Amino acid sequence: MTSSYKKILSNLIKIAVVALAFWFIYKKIANHHDLKEFVALLRNIPTLQICLVLGSVFVLMLFNWGLEAIKWKHLIERVEQISLWRAIESVFCGLTWAVFTPNRLGEYGGRVFFLSPKRRIVGVVVMTIGNIGQLVLTNVFGAIAACIFVYRFIPIEPILFAAICGLSFVFALFFLVFYFNIKWLNGILLSIKFTRKYAKFYAVLGRYQKKELLQILLFCLARYAVFTTQYLIMFLWLIPDLSLLEVLMLIPILFFVQSTLPSLDLLDIGIRSVTALFFFKYITDQNIVVVACIASIWLINIIIPAILGSYFVFKLNIFGNTRRD
């Protein structure tokens, strides 16, 4: 394929990605009942207060994805050196791709296209390490919160509760041990004849030391704290009679349940709402407000970044190195 045809095809792909993302976003937002409920809730709240609260949640969103960009830069250094700005571009570009793909799979493609072509497959493997780190925290905190929830709201026999706590401990410990020994996965893949021929792509799994993995996990922890804070701000603002500790207990459970269900980013709001209603019914009967909170955070954390990322999609050179201007 000549360079001119590659350029034309590259531009068509980028236009198609952005058009598809915006079409999905429009279709979801145009008739989004929960967002309309959220707007209705704001009508009796002073404008300054709305600006301060939503502004703080928006700033936390930028901080959250900024932390992800720093984490990505640290992770990919084992493969290719990129600047912090390039990492930010790739993260937001990936969010645009993710918004219309199942389980955010498009995020991998959108992000690794900012790497040189020969390093893109390895980049997918490296990105998986960061995602596993985030999943570890989601599962660990989710397991702890689930035990507290059962103790607080579900009347069961002490021996059954002890068994649940024991299983939760083993579950959390497994993920922590697996993460800090991610090189085991390299050994497992090498032992399988079919995957052995792809060793050059996943060999990077054996390069990360425990100290490096701990640094990545701390970035994941910072992100976890940021989006937990977003939920706290919104729930305690719109439902001020809620207990801080009870909300802190339920948020990790929401994250945990959502992480176990296959979804599409734009359909994920439905899963988030149903999950929130199921658990929050134990501490409040304001269902409309709960769903409105979830919808607003979904809009700020997923939709707005996906729209911002559309600009960076056009900076890709799909068939070669990204432009460095």
Helix share of residues?
over 70%
Question: Count of helices?
Answer: 14
Topology as a string of helices (H) and strands (E): HHHHHHHHHHHHHH
Beta-strand percent range: under 5%
Task: Provide a descriptive summary of the structure in words.
With 325 residues, the chain is mostly helical. It is built from 14 helices and no strands. The chain has helices spanning 3-30, 33-42, 47-76, 84-98, 106-112, 120-153, 158-180, 183-190, 193-196, 199-202, 210-238, 244-260, 268-280, 287-313. Helix 13 runs antiparallel to helix 14. It is globular, with a radius of gyration of 21 Å. The two termini are 25 Å apart.
Could you give a quick summary of the protein structure above?
The mean pLDDT is 88. The protein is globular and about 65 Å long.
Q: What distinguishing features does this structure have?
A:
325 residues, 0% strand, mainly alpha, 14 helices, globular, 77% helix
Topology:
Layout: H1 3-30, H2 33-42, H3 47-76, H4 84-98, H5 106-112, H6 120-153, H7 158-180, H8 183-190, H9 193-196, H10 199-202, H11 210-238, H12 244-260, H13 268-280, H14 287-313
Helix pairs in contact: 1-14, 2-14, 3-4, 3-6, 3-11, 3-14, 4-5, 4-14, 6-7, 6-11, 6-12, 11-12, 11-14, 12-13, 13-14
